[in-house]
Specification:
- By secondary structure, the protein is α/β, with parallel strands linked by helices.
- Helix content is 40%, strand content 14%.
- It has four helices and three strands.
- A three-stranded parallel β-sheet has the order 1-2-3.
- The protein is elongated.
- The two termini are 22 Å apart.
- This is Amino acid deaminase/aldolase.
- It comes from Streptomyces haneummycinicus.
């Protein structure tokens, strides 16, 4: 990982956000250390995750602002749903 390029991209995102906080999409940053690095920077706030299993894993890993982008279905749809897989995948 080129950390100089990573940091430059983070700076550019914050600049383009024009003072609004940037929520990191976890599908774009698949490394816990890099998520920690970017969230320690001014201008970033929280993570948007893409599965319930990933959200739970992130929360258990110490991230306290996790938004689940696609909440799982509820009600009758869940009766035939497969179990939630573990995260990260093996």
């Amino acid at each position: 990982m080129d950390l100089d390029a990573f940091d430059a991209n983070a700076d550019d995102l914050v600049r383009r956000a024009g003072g609004k906080p940037v929520r990191v999409a976890s599908k774009s940053v698949r490394c816990r250390a890099l998520l920690e690095r970017v969230l320690a920077r001014e201008g970033f706030a929280g993570i948007m995750s893409f599965t319930l299993a990933e959200s739970l894993w992130l929360a258990r890993s110490g991230f306290d602002d996790v938004l689940l982008a696609y909440p799982p279905p509820t009600g009758p749809a869940t009766r035939s749903s497969p179990p939630i897989p573990s995260w990260p995948p093996p």
